[in-house]
Amino acid sequence: MNLIIHRGADQIGGCITEISTENCKILIDFGSNLPGCKKEELTEEQVKSIIGNADAVFYTHYHSDHVGLHHLIPTNVLQYIGVGAKEVMLCKYDALRVHGDYSKQIEAIERMETYCAAKRIDVSKKGKIFVTPYFVSHSAFDAYMFLIECEGKKILHTGDFRRHGYIGKGLFPTLKKNVGEVDILITEGTMLGRSQECVISESEIQKNIIKALREHKYVFALCSSTDLDRLATFHAACKKTGRIFLVDEYQNRVLNVFTKYAGCKSDLFQFNAFKLINYRTVNVRNKLQKEGFLMPIRMSSGYLLKGMLDIYNDEKPWLIYSMWGGYTKEGKDYTNSDVINIRNLFGDRILDGTMDGVHTSGHADVETLKEVCQTVHPRIGVIPIHKDENSRYDSISGISSYFIFDEGDVDIHDIHISIK
Fold it and tell me: What residue ranges are annotated as transmembrane (predicted)?
């Protein structure tokens, strides 16, 4: 068996993992580099070289740093993703069409196969590699980890995950009941370099949002438009305070996907939003000015926001900044000018990320990483990915007893492991 980390061992995002036998090959995730990454993006020829004679690509979730190069995958190679995740991707690229030609991306998504949680897949019906997806909590809806069975070995690829989301309570029961002990654990380490960042639960965030809505009539929330948990938090807070949950057309389409696939599992994920068509009409103005609202907005919402701030100003509007704090740091490679411009519209009327308890990471904290490792007890070792170059797994108390694979090539227990 060959196990190759083509990308992701020394960077957050852009992950590409290969697992292959003599006549069967899969790749897990084929992401693009995150903004601010100093490494050059892969060319189409480099993508084809990595793909080679692959049977399939499996995506853990729809964030671009995991699925961003999907349109460069040759059409003869199967691509798999969750059924809800596929619809969210189609929503996203359909909305982007007004800004350019995304036909290649949309066609590739439409060709994608879908998998179901806990349903084992015999890749290309060859009986060589089996992949079983299991739900995980992440800042993306319909995210999964994969149990890969190959040549008598068990490999767990966690993808991006956390314990502190709404469905995070299912993490360890799933590992204990369905996964058990494995030979190799491939897992993320995003939070290794962010140990000072406060990690709180979505339920705690909901309490803080409720308090904000009781104090302020007009609230805009700068957040990811596809983060099911965060949007459910905002929606629930609106229901409990009598505020309107106000969304634009694109956000409403995404919420409809969430309701369709997740709403049947929990009332928390059944969305009932007020879709904004024209914020200037008398009836809309009267309703919003009477009842108040929380409106999720995106980095690209600056023009809409400025227009609304001119009208809804009988009380001072506030901003909830519910995203990664790095975008706000000026002069960095990952600085986002759209984020800074939106924040500047509110002056000091901002509830700010983790500092004010209105944001939490989509990634596992160090304690959760340790417990996952101890639960699946990888016999051969741990391969850390999706982490900063200088972040080290062997610095975690309780994990140092496991073999941690580092950059380079090694042959062990009939597996050739290459980490690039």
Answer: none
